[in-house]
Amino acid sequence: MARIDVQCRYCNSELVYKHGYARSGEPRYRCRNGQRSFQMAYRYEGNTAGIPEKIVEMAMNGSGVRDTSRVLGVSITTVIAHLKKIKARQGQPATDSSGHGV
Ligand SMILES: [Zn+2]
After folding, report:
1. 33 C-alpha vs ligand 1 centroid, how far in Å?
2. Where do the DSSP E strands lie in 1-102?
3. Residue range 57-96, pLDDT digits in tens
4. CA-to-CA distance for 54 and 73, rounded, in angstroms?
5. What secondary structure letter does DSSP report for 1?
6. Nearest-CA neighbor of 63 among 50, 54, 75, 52?
7. Ligand 1 centre and the CA of 70: distance in Å?
8. What is the DSSP letter of 26?
9. Which InterPro entries does the record associate with it (predicted)?
10. Which residues make up the environment of ion ligand 1, defined by Cβ < 5 Å?
């Protein structure tokens, strides 16, 4: 059986098995420890290049979640998820380049 050079994204275990394919066509993997399945690359619309920036831009311009979703062609859930992520980031103290607090 071919070795899979994949680490579990939850526990970094290398005891990972192929576990079919996601609807997007990405292979899915399953970790032996946690029995959790995951993909190496999550390919969902909101991660398309430029979309997060556009979501922010539209929010700054006062666009509602619905408008943003319609204009950018992403789901409302995606818009909300990005806005939450941005808020969380803004609420954190400044960090240096290593990612640790200054
Ligand atoms: Zn794991």
Report:
1. 5
2. 16-21, 27-31, 37-39
3. 999 899 999 999 998 888 899 899 888 887 787 766 655 5
4. 11
5. -
6. 54
7. 37
8. -
9. InsA_HTH_dom (IPR024431), InsA_N_dom_Znf (IPR003220), IS1_transposase_InsA (IPR051252)
10. 8, 10-11, 13, 31, 33-34
